[in-house]
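Students often ask what a holo structure prediction actually looks like on paper. The answer is less mysterious than it sounds. You provide the chain, you provide the ligand, and the output is a string of discrete structure tokens encoding the 3D arrangement of the protein together with NAI.
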Amino acid sequence: MGASQQEQGPLRVALLGCGVVGSEVARLLTQQSADLASRVGAPLELVGIAVRDASAPRPLAASVDRSLLTEDAEGLVARADIVIEVMGGIEPARTLLLRAIESGAAVVTANKALLAEDGPTLYKAADTAGVDIYFEAAVAGAIPIVRPVRESLAGDSVRRILGIVNGTTNYVLDQMASTGMSFDDAVKQAQDLGYAEADPTADVEGFDAAAKAAILASLAFHTRVSLEDVAREGITRITADDVAWAAQTGHVIKLLAIAESVTGDDGAHGVSVRVHPALVPLTHPLAGVRGAFNAVFVEADAAGELMFYGRGAGGAPTASAVLGDVVSAARHRVLGGKGPEESTYAALPILPASTAVTRYQVRLAVDDRPGVLAQVAQVLASKGVSIEAVRQPSEPSVPGADGAEDDGSTGVAHLVITTHAAAEAALAATVDAIAVLEPVQEITSVLRVEGA
Ligand SMILES: NC(=O)C1=CN([C@@H]2O[C@H](COP(=O)(O)OP(=O)(O)OC[C@H]3O[C@@H](n4cnc5c(N)ncnc54)[C@H](O)[C@@H]3O)[C@@H](O)[C@H]2O)C=CC1
Ligand SMILES: N[C@@H](CC=O)C(=O)O
Ligand code: NA
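The corresponding structure tokens follow.
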């Protein structure tokens, strides 16, 4: 340790929350205190941990000094140089962070729900107070993605971000595909492993991924994007049948977050942000992202394609990102300087997700007789939707299914139609028209296909 470091008094760190992430942050702050002090140039002193119930059993936090636990979050914030918020939810997290900022503390948060709902209030308060606000853990857990987009790519022009940014849904879809596990059992496992949000609805309905997409889009396109700007669909309608058919046709289903630069019908340039399940070809790198891992593709004008991959959820991986931010903020306290401020100069319009043109896969059950395919193809042609491929694969075996439809005696054939890139409205009109054809028994699924 150098002379100037020895002169620097400890920086007081307040931790708000001691759950899956907070307990790991506390552990790392304690166990790595000597290294952290050397990296920062001053000791980091954990002065308290705010929790709802200080007397509750904490199996996750066995190594944490219980005397640090407090139910007085406001009092704790008032005596800190750096406040780490890992309690989640909108309130009291927002008020506590604003209090911290107003009192001159730097803040680090993993709270994507809060940032996607009201980040600008926090960013503005931090700018006014001249303090840092860091949030690497809020998007894709341990993966460095906020900093690369916000800082490393600040000299480039991002065109598109395509990513798997929710560990829970990726885990659930992966378990369904690889082991045939039921949706509910897989969600339960993701909860037990510490991947899921306090209310896993946020994961499976796509709110968590949408919040992350909003944060990334704001940074990438220098434009304020909030949760309500994101078109969102979760994975609750994905069935074991869909998963099995995806494999049968050389795909895997992933919940994707996509933020891209688009041009509207009137020629206006804007940003479109969407989260939805999509078929990804098995040959695409995103198809190989298993379990709770995340991956984010970034396409930029000069840099070309970049891919960021790693653990997107879980206590220790998320704590890694939190600690990185804490070190950055702490260094500024010691050495001077400040992290980046919100950049919204481009203020691009947010265009509807329907502006995005993608390939689709339509799966339908039809009467198994000659001429049906021609009728279906005729509808596609009449709506101006171009066919890339039509297949009539044999029915996959679906774990747990009774196989009643596929015994060959029901006169059902399954058609899988992949389109070339089509507008959402044209595709919807096409599907409606196909559905009423006499030999069509059912449109079993319509999914976007993403990735080359
Ligand atoms: N679990 C994960 O894999 C990841 C979580 N995050 C984010 O990190 C944050 C925390 O997540 P988890 O640790 O999983 O949650 P958790 O539910 O395991 O822990 C939350 C902690 O905050 C405390 N808390 C909640 N409300 C409080 C209040 N009003 N007053 C005092 N204490 C309160 C609870 O007592 C608990 O100790 C959330 O914003 C979450 O979205 C981000 C990335 C990954
Ligand atoms: N619930 C989230 C946790 C990390 O952000 C997820 O599953 O990805
Ligand atoms: Na991250």
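The mean pLDDT is 94.
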